[in-house]
Amino acid sequence: MRSFMIDEITPDDMEKLENWLKEQELGSSIDHLYHFNIPVRLLSPLQQEHAETCGPFYMAVETGRDWVRLELLVRAKKILRCACIAYATGEQQQHMVGYLENLLTDLRIPL
Questions:
Q1: How close are the terminal C-alpha atoms of the chain, in Å?
Q2: Residues 57, 47 contacting (CB under 8 angstroms)
Q3: Are 5 and 67 in contact (CB under 8 A)?
Q4: Domain chopping of the chain, boundaries
Q5: Per 3-state DSSP, what percentage of the chain is helix, strand, and coil (rounded to 5)?
Q6: pLDDT > 90 fraction of the chain, expressed in percent and rounded
């Protein structure tokens, strides 16, 4: 699995991040796994076609004891297997990595 990971995060900063993710209701049914929705404007043509039947689309964010990892796979909330589920395009990847980095900066968590 391709992913973007930031590690060596302090326990206090991990707590701050986890609290923010929960407050924003980004959690999933699995502990320490969150969903960052992909903006509609960044969806691939196939994902746009499948938006009604498969979407919304997101990238999974997993948190650990001292790390956070953004999976670079675009997933669909309504279905597990479909051609629209694919590794992030360059634009999707750049946007979502930037989103995570900006979030950590806003929470004053050093990168």
A1: 22
A2: yes
A3: yes
A4: 3-106
A5: 35, 25, 40
A6: 98
Question: What are the CA-CA distances from residue 96 to residues 4, 61, 84, 90 (Å)?
Answer: 10, 10, 18, 10
Residue 1: the pLDDT is 85
Query: Please, what is the angle between helix 11-23 and helix 90-106, to 10°?
Result: 110
Tokens of 89: 């395009």
44-93: pLDDT as tens digits? 999 999 999 999 999 999 999 999 999 999 999 999 999 999 999 999 99
pTM greater than 0.85:
yes
CA–CA dist 108, 10 (Å, integer): 12
